[in-house]
């Protein structure tokens, strides 16, 4: 197991996390949802601690503990004051390596309720619908939460086997930031982490295909139409990702961005409009979301189409790009004042095998982004013929008519 730490002498807290190289992307259709189910089951007890005792212990020391599942990673993380690191590490180690996998049926019901809640929330679901549009049948296009039948029906033995194959030392990174001593953490790991097995699970290597652009729609009785447009993006180790973050910031990442100003501030056509991006091992995604009432849908998408066309014909000028660079640098610096953010950066980067740049190195790469860099990414990633459309709302025919201004959308 790899261990990475960053000492922050000015704080008394420690953010501690275990990063495991498994997620929804590395599941077959018959396993879809097991990574997320196991993340829940980590909290259901260990050989030494019951589920209730885990909750009581972290509450008693004023600590936080949580977990998350992504497309390519699962993480268990906590934030404690430095005098409780040994205790937190002991409990978290058992949760990672030796979960009791108890009360599975009750936790299945919890996740089935979570799936139902997700299905009832079109503002969340439309993002996964866009992923399906962009990546087609590839697991990257599947929702992280998984399939209800897999969660409900997979036997305990299969769940235990899934855990045993992926939760192995070679597939885990231990990360910590704050008032932490690296050598002490290594000693704790040597005492509590199991020896590596004869063979380690390795996520299958494959390049994620980007499907031909298409329209996906779910008809649902909603007050708003929830719309996403997007396409393929950049892999997490692509050096152009810094330019893409600048582009995302100026296009729809802030309240002064082009799309926010044109759609919401000037015309009042939506409450929420923003761009987003995601990076994976060998693929990526860009997109824009907006939610609007039926009577504003056509006008909102006309403005969106016009602005996406205009920004390619008239790329952002130096002043606009400089403002986006400064915004990005400011948000980066502020985020890294958090022990949790620093721990997450360490764990996720090391697990993914991407360079761990210092803050100054990241700032230098942002400062190096030029107008030509941004214009090139606009042509490559935001060309209308590359974009898929996803929507959830009360009328599919109205949605298809509204996306007509993006005539090149398949």
What does this molecule look like?
With 410 residues, this protein is of the alpha+beta class. It has helices at 34-41, 51-60, 85-97, 104-119, 122-135, 148-153, 156-166, 182-192, 241-253, 258-265, 294-313, 318-335, 339-352, 359-367, 371-381, 396-402, and strands at residues 2-7, 13-20, 64-69, 74-81, 172-178, 215-219, 224-232, 272-279, 284-293, 388-393. Helix 3 (85-97) packs parallel to helix 8 and helix 12 (318-335) runs antiparallel to helix 14. It is globular. It starts with a strand and ends in an 8-residue tail after the last helix. The mean pLDDT is 94.
Helix content: 40-55%
The overall strand count is 10
User: Shape from CA axes?
Assistant: globular
* Structural classification: alpha+beta
Q: What is the percentage of strand-forming residues?
A: 15-25%
Largest sheet, in brief, is: 5 strands, mixed
List keywords for this structure.
16 helices, alpha+beta, 410 residues
């Amino acid at each position: 197991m790899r261990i990475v730490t960053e000492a922050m002498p000015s704080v008394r807290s420690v953010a501690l996390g275990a990063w495991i190289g498994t997620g929804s992307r590395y599941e077959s259709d018959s396993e879809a949802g097991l990574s997320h189910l196991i993340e829940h089951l980590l909290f259901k007890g260990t050989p030494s601690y019951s589920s209730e005792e885990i909750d009581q212990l972290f509450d008693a020391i004023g600590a936080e503990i949580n977990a998350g599942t992504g497309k390519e990673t699962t993480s268990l993380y906590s934030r404690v004051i430095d005098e409780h690191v040994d205790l937190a590490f002991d409990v978290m180690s058992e949760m990672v390596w030796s979960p009791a996998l108890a009360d599975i049926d009750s936790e299945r019901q919890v996740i089935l309720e979570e799936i139902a809640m997700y299905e009832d929330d079109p503002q969340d679901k439309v993002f996964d619908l866009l992923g399906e549009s962009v990546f087609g049948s590839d697991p990257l296009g599947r929702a992280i939460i998984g399939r209800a039948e897999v969660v409900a029906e997979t036997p305990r033995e299969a769940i235990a086997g899934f855990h045993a194959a992926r939760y192995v030392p070679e597939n885990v990174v231990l990360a910590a930031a704050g008032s932490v001593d690296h050598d002490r953490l290594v000693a704790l790991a040597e005492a509590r982490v199991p020896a590596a097995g004869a063979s380690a699970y390795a996520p299958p290597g494959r390049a994620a295909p980007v499907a031909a652009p298409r329209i996906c729609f779910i008809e649902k009785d909603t007050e708003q139409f929830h719309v996403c447009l997007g396409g393929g993006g950049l892999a997490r180790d692509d050096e152009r990702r810094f330019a893409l973050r600048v582009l995302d910031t100026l296009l729809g990442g802030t309240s002064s961005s082009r799309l926010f100003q044109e759609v919401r501030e000037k015309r009042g056509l939506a409450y929420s409009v923003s761009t987003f991006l995601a990076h994976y091992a060998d693929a990526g995604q860009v997109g824009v979301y907006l939610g609007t009432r039926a009577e504003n849908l056509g006008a909102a998408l006309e403005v969106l189409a016009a602005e996406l066309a205009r920004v390619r014909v008239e790329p952002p000028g130096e002043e606009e790009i400089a403002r986006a660079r400064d915004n990005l640098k400011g948000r980066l610096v502020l985020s890294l004042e958090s022990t949790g953010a620093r721990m997450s950066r360490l764990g996720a980067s090391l697990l993914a095998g991407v360079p761990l740049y210092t803050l100054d190195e990241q700032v230098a790469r942002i400062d190096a982004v030029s107008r030509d860099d941004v214009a090139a990414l606009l042509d490559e990633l935001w060309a209308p013929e590359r974009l898929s459309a996803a929507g959830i709302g009360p009328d599919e025919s109205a949605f298809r008519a509204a996306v007509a201004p993006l005539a090149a959308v398949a």
